[in-house]
Write a structure and sequence with these properties.
mainly alpha, 8 helices, about 0% strand
Length: about 190
């Protein structure tokens, strides 16, 4: 199978995921300041999840520059990664509708952690199946994002747990990872 087909499939699934998240946004019954302010938690988590998906999409295409062909194992790893990503809208809706509830923040972070683990599996598979001689930098590049992402998830978990009043805003800390991703990309 050509890698372009897998990339196109992945692009389509990520686009659908973002579309599902956008469809979850609903206007309040009254277009007043109070009504619109009640939407802020959902808007914050939507923006956070949207930016996370865009950063991951960028890294995904950087990672796939290392791919020569799609093996069965790589297709499986890519599918696992997309499966984990497909739960992001559910977790986003949960934390958006229950922003002050630590359990929903925990569920959101677990979904993102599983997505990160799937990323690591896919990255390892790409590196293992690449027919090119990869430099040490090329081998490390995809893992940097995963490590930073994992550390961020732990930090957000601690902030949400130790400072319950900040639970609705804790996911916004993930934007640091997005900024790092966009600034560190040299292409």
């Amino acid at each position: 199978m050509k890698k372009e087909r897998v990339e196109a499939l992945s692009d389509a699934i990520l686009a659908i995921i973002v579309t599902i998240m956008a469809l979850e946004l609903q206007l309040p019954n009254e277009l007043t300041v109070a009504g619109l302010s009640s939407m802020l938690p959902m808007i914050f988590i939507y923006i956070t999840s949207f930016l996370q998906i865009m950063a991951v999409w960028l890294y995904y295409h950087e990672l796939y520059k290392l791919v020569d062909h799609i093996s069965f194992h790589l297709f499986g790893a890519n599918s696992l990664w997309l499966l984990a990503a497909s739960f992001v809208p559910l977790a986003t809706r949960g934390v958006g509708q229950n922003s002050a509830n630590f359990e929903f923040l925990l569920f959101y972070l677990i979904v993102l952690a599983l997505w990160d683990v799937a990323w690591i599996i896919m990255t390892a598979t790409v590196i293992k199946t690449s027919q090119r001689q990869l430099s040490a930098e090329e081998k490390k590049m995809p893992y940097r994002w995963a490590l930073l992402y994992g550390l961020q998830l732990v930090f957000i978990l601690l902030v949400g747990y130790l400072f319950p009043n900040l639970t609705p805003f804790a996911p916004l800390l993930m934007i640091i990872n997005v900024i790092y991703g966009f600034l560190s990309n040299k292409s």
